[in-house]
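Below: protein 1.
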Amino acid sequence: MKSLLFSFADLSVKDKAAKEAMKYFSRAGANVVQQDVSTAVKRNSGVSYREMLLTFADSQKVVLRIKQTGDIFQVLLNNKLLPIRNQDDHVAAIAEIVKAMDSGRSKFQKLLAAAKVRPPAGIRTAAPKMEQVLIGKRDALKAAIAEVRAEIATYTGALTA
């Protein structure tokens, strides 16, 4: 089967072509861990389409934009448009997508590692209070150590006198 034709009206993760696409991605070495199909019909460049989002084991995302005719209109890899040479041969196109994923994996992982994630506004962390408590304990221990050293000094002074 060279061409995958999706059923635009009944497009879902249970669609036969969607399952075939997942199978071809797995054979090419990219394991799909999550698949989602938007219910909303979008329009871009005069073409109506629906989106199928595929998330892979390394957190990379591929969005397949599927036209009303059932073929793929555009491919987005990590939210960037990816031009495909083999548009008529979906198996070769999937191999192209996987190759692009492999070549950009290290850059993508660096971007993920560099991204700073802030907790939501409603969540409070205990770190500032914990830091104050630990500083208080540290200062109390320093004072206790100073007292013990002073007491030791008085005893050693009494023994030498």
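Below: protein 2.
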Amino acid sequence: MAQQSVLIFDDDEDLLNIFSFLFEDMGWQVFTHPTCDDVIERTRETKPNLILMDNWIPAIGGIAATQLLKADQELKEIPVIYISANNDVKALSAKAGADAFIAKPFDFDELSALAEKLTNKTGI
């Protein structure tokens, strides 16, 4: 089976390091970006199995970036996990059109289980 890959958009370097460590520990290939500029181009380049999208990310923000991805015929099937410390993360995630959400601070086990669930869809 091909190695799973994740593309992470977050402007918090510490969090990028934590996410990278977590996913690499799971055997995934990790790509990270501190802005969501060129979100379509970056996603096409890396062709990830999963995307993590931060809410407060320069320049256009996570909602607009996720909406761009979900409007793209080639990329819309890639699952997006929306990440935010905002109390309204569920509503923000829904507005963005993300496939799932996780609140900061997050639980490693919860995130890894969610990642596996979203990328191991069978027969859909």
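Helices lie at 13-25, 39-46, 62-71, 89-96, 108-119.
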